[in-house]
Design brief:
CATH topology of the largest domain: PmbA/TldD fold
Helix content: 10-25%
Number of strands: 19
Order of helices and strands: HEEEHHEEEHEHHEEEHEEEHEEEHEEE
Oligomer: single chain
Number of domains: 3
CATH superfamily of the largest domain: PmbA/TldD superfamily
CATH class of the largest domain: Alpha Beta
Number of helices: 9
Shape: globular
Length: 452
């Protein structure tokens, strides 16, 4: 794979070609990745997969007209044809008065922050297939050793390295590399029609930060066994408690409602909420692109703007929209450094390492006064309306009775309205950073629970 400097130079070269060919402005993305994945089942190797890819995307502007093209053919002749095609397409495209590159004065200049995302830059070699196989086998073995586990869907281990570069005709050029490691196990407990499945997974930028296979396997097995012989909860209004591995989806719905596209199109249930309370007092939602070896850390955004930690919600109050340059122009505001780019097309917005904090109660205290409720560990379906905030999802988990986690429950739905749910949210103090979106255990009173 190329080095970050070589990737940056490739992106910069295609931008130079585009401006020479008649584009008024241009930006380019170069993306490459390699990945090795190993899967095992019932103690035997099942599959070995290796993938490598490299793509280049070019966006050009002729006045307020623009076009985007991409290719995986990186030969000199193919790139020359790509530039000519992009400029010709832009000349025929409709005008968009909001389109354009990010403001030049907002671009990141100087050395980017060092985020320690690339294990190989620190001398860590790519793991051999045999090493990944042994990790996957150890995880599956630990899961199958849990009493009550009767079958396995397998264990898996992976290692990858990705490279991302961006260059603009306004003077920005940058690139960075990131490694990733993953380890998982998925098993079944019980027999026949009463079998239950669950899993555990962990991902990390650095190999040394990956959970042990024994811990991952044991967690997968214990989760599956705990789900055996589920009942159904009573129907009615009651507290719903979200396990951290599913609670992050709630914050995802909030972020979706404050993105530039939803605001400019007026299709958000939080449309008039800027500067208003959207969460319970004391709770905050933060985005930290500079978190060392974070799963979604980045030194600059998809338009080349500097990024920095942001309080999206502070003490319950919504502080900002998430805007790329086009949405910011349309709203008369400044871009927020949350632009996100793929190889093709225009930027959208995304967060980096997103988390909700401010919870002060231990989990035991959070559920201690619940006479009857449900603790949700799995969400099913996508019944969420981003315009109205209406929320309805299938769920599985555990009954809460007299302040204690009771038996497993399944085949029920939970429903409410996100705007009301956010304001009724209470958080525990068990926040851990394990995913791209991290939340503590969350409780929302007054949700509607209905057995299927």
């Amino acid at each position: 794979m190329l080095s970050p400097d070589q990737a940056r130079d490739r992106a910069q070269d295609i931008v130079t070609r585009a401006t020479r060919a008649g584009a008024d402005a241009a930006d380019a993305v170069f993306a490459a990745d390699s990945a090795l994945e190993i899967s095992v089942r019932l103690g035997k190797l099942e599959d070995v997969g290796r993938s490598e890819s490299a793509e280049l995307g070019l966006r050009v502007f002729v006045g307020r007209r623009s076009a985007s093209v991409s290719t995986s053919d990186l030969s000199d002749a193919a790139l020359g044809a790509l530039v000519e095609r992009a400029v010709a397409m832009a000349r025929e495209a409709p005008e968009d008065r909001w389109a354009g590159l990010a403001p030049a004065e907002r671009l990141l200049h100087g050395a980017p922050p060092q985020l320690d995302l690339d294990d190989q830059a620190n001398g860590q070699p790519e793991p051999a297939p045999e090493a990944l196989r042994d990790l996957a086998l150890a995880a599956e073995d630990a899961a199958r050793a849990v009493p009550g586990v009767t079958n396995s869907e397998g264990g898996g281990a992976s290692a990858s390295r990705s490279l991302w570069a961006l260059a603009t005709s306004t003077g920005f050029a940058g690139a960075y590399a990131a490694t990733g490691y993953g380890l998982s196990a998925s098993v079944l407990a019980g027999e026949g029609s009463g079998m239950q499945r669950d899993y555990a997974h962990h991902g990390a930028r650095k190999r040394q930060h990956l959970d042990s296979p024994e811990a991952i396997g044991r967690e997968a097995g214990e989760r599956a066994v705990a789900r055996l012989n589920p009942g159904r909860p009573a129907s009615g209004a009651m507290p719903v408690v979200f396990d951290p591995r599913v609670g992050g989806s709630l914050v995802g719905h909030l972020v979706g409602a404050i993105g530039g596209a939803a605001i400019t199109r007026r299709t958000s249930f939080l449309l008039d909420s800027l500067g208003q309370p959207v969460l319970s007092p004391g709770l905050s939602v933060r985005d930290d692109p500079h978190r060392p070896h974070g799963l979604r850390s980045r030194p600059f955004d998809g338009e080349g703007l500097a990024v920095s930690p942001t309080a999206i919600v502070e003490d319950g109050v919504l502080e900002t929209w998430l805007l790329d340059s086009a949405a910011a122009r349309q709203l008369g505001l400044e871009p927020t450094g949350h632009a996100s780019r793929g190889v093709g097309g225009a930027p959208g917005v995304s967060t980096s390492n997103l988390y909700l904090d401010g919870g002060k109660l231990p989990v035991g205290t959070l559920i201690g006064d619940i006479a009857e409720g449900v603790y949700v560990t799995e969400l099913i379906g996508m019944g969420v309306n981003g315009v109205t905030g209406d929320y309805s999802r299938g769920a599985a988990g555990f009954l809460i009775r007299n302040g204690e986690i009771a038996g497993p429950v399944a085949e029920f739905t939970i429903a409410g309205n996100l705007k009301e749910m956010f304001l009724a949210m209470t958080a525990a103090n068990d926040l851990r950073f394990r995913y791209g979106v991290n939340v503590p255990t969350l409780r929302i009173d007054g949700m509607t629970v209905a057995s299927a």
